[in-house]
Amino acid sequence: MSGVPIYPPADTTTHRTLVTGGAGFVGSHLVEHLLALGDEVVVLDDLSTGSARNLAGAAENPRLQMMDGSILNTKTVGQAMESCDRVFHLAAAVGVKLIVEQPLRGLRINIHGTENVLTAAIERQASVLLVSTSEVYGKNTADRLREDSDRILGDPLLSRWTYAGAKGIDEAFAKAYCDQEGLDVAIVRLFNTVGPRQTGRYGMVFPNLVGQALRGHPLTVFGDGKQTRCFSAVEDVVPAMVRIERDPRARGQAYNLGGAREISILDLAREIIRTLDSRSDIELIPYDQAYAPGFEDMRRRVPDNSKANALVGYEPQTSLTTTILRVAADLLARERLSSDAMPLVGTGALRGVL
Ligand code: UDP
Description:
alpha/beta, disordered N terminus, binds uridine-5'-diphosphate
């Protein structure tokens, strides 16, 4: 993983840890972090949105075991969890674009798949970190979203809301299994986590816009671009996830893990263009064209990170500029985009990170 973990390891105990979705963007960074802490790691991933390439840097590690399979298959989940004492559950259908296009798949994976993982963990007395999302807060535009803030969701018949609905059910399942069957589980809600290896293929704005800026294409900003987000760097979030999982006070609790700086998508586009010295323009695209008619976006999403800060000292450290440069360097390396392929892009800013 790029960057330096912000916290020392919480303890020196090593574990045999299952990471579902470990070949995904956040999952692969987590796997590298756990291996660095000395864990044996089993990855269960169906490689639908994740990729074995994400784990290329760890592939030779004898403490890493890869399993290609789905969390919808209870037998596979049981096998993957064999002799594991903890599980980080990240496998999910993610990305607004994917959810809008394939709501049924999203519902099945995010609800049935998660319940399979939780019940297998109970059988094996493994602890669980359930990775959830800020989407659960829906359209709540509060100044700072606390973990107990109200959820404001739209019409359940709009596929956009099925992700928030399913993840809310996942959290409720986790809490109920904790209270009624003694499952040792904690929950984290990630807010627009970004960094190297995230793909723009499923609609995520950050890699999309950085890729467009590198190619000299217009940056596609949806709606009026005044909607805001707080982007958090994966290298800040991953060590905090591990510390929360280890902390007994986190049992049955949820923790926001988000960025510190609120920025509009239009300003993000401008900052990407400036940082990468790109000659791209910005193009405003109406939501109806970007998604489907009737699509509802979140106008604002700002976390209150104080609960995770009080528990494990979580404090976002990585600047947006650094993340833009890291994501750009990663895209260039992964897609083998040479400066010949991108004649319009000034690469001066990237020299330091390539
Ligand atoms: N967005 C955008 N251009 C894109 C992709 C997304 O303007 O190419 C917008 C999207 O409408 C939303 C914000 O960027 O307002 C963040 O989108 P993303 O899908 O990354 O995350 P989420 O909507 O879950 O916060």
